[in-house]
Structures are given as structure tokens and as C-alpha cells.
């Protein structure tokens, strides 16, 4: 606990604090020569960040890739779940409303095209994540036998090639 002592100075009845100790001049420090700059250390995340989000793990990346592939496959099935328009639904008194049926048929085809494209993108991202996990594990996984690491590299390269060449055609 810090306690300040005040001294009463009889000047017009005002109390003033006591003066502080005298200031002593410090000795000048000798000038040191400039040292060359040290290279910066590699970034190391804070331990609390690692505790919260974790570090890289092969199984985590593999599972994220598989989950994204499954979600993409589910999107491809939505149009089958909804079904195409049925012509019987557009008949009134035995007369087909052709314009409304054609409009709904077109909308269904567009929905199918859009969801197939989204599904394809998600599956490509999932395959890319799995390929990344394999290549990174092969590069940094020192605990594995060389044959396992070579197999992981080959599999990762094949997956990347599959994703890259999915829509290529020679003709």
C-alpha cells in the first residue's frame, strides 16, 4: 500500500504536498555498436490458438474432404427427390396447359443443371483436400516407411490429376 505524506504549509490555508526527493542525473551509457539484424523466426502460433483450433492432422483433412464429397453427392440427388413435372398435373378438363408445363419443365432442368454443377464443384474440392492431405503427409510424415510415403505421393498426384482433368477432352 502506498501512502503519501503531506506537509502542511501555512500559506493562505491551502494544503500542498511535500516535495519529492531530488532528481539525480543518470550516468551516460556508453554507445554500443550496431548489431546486424537477425533473421526473423518462423511464425509459431500461440499455444491457446493451437489448443482451440488444433494443428494439422492427416485424419482431420481426410475427413473434411470425405464429408464435402458426400455433401456434393447429396446435392446431385435433390432433383430426383423433387421429380420432374408430371403432365397429368397440368390438365384441366382434358386440356393440357402446355405453356405452364413447358415453363416448369425448363425450371426443373435448370435446377438439375445448377445442382449438378454445385455437386461437381464440392466433389472436386473434397478430392483436392484429400490430395492435399496425402501430399502433405508424404512430405512431412517422417514416421512412415518410405514405401508408404511414395504411395501417398503417387495417390495424391493421381487425385490432383483427376480433379484437373475431370472436364478435359482431347477431341
Structure, explained:
The chain has 171 residues and is mostly helical. The chain has a domain at 52-164. It is built from five helices and four strands; from the N terminus they run ββαααββαα. The chain has helices spanning 47-53, 58-76, 78-82, 98-140, 146-164, and strands at 6-11, 14-17, 91-92, 95-96. The strands form two sheets. The protein has a two-stranded antiparallel ribbon. β1 and β2 (14-17) form a beta hairpin. α2 (58-76) runs antiparallel to α4 and α4 runs antiparallel to α5 (146-164). The radius of gyration is 36 Å and the shape is elongated. The chain starts with 5 loop residues before the first strand and ends in a 7-residue tail after the last helix. The mean pLDDT is 77.
In terms of structural class, how would the helical and strand content be classed?
A: mainly alpha
**What separation lies between the terminal Cα atoms?**
87 Å
Q: How many β-strand stretches? A: 4
3D shape: elongated
- Low-confidence segments, given as residue ranges, are none
Number of helical segments with 4 or more residues: 5
Most strands sheet: 2 strands, antiparallel
Radius of gyration: 36 Å
Percent of residues in beta strands? 5-15%
- List SSEs in N-to-C order: EEHHHEEHH
What share of residues is helical? 40-55%
Mean pLDDT: 77
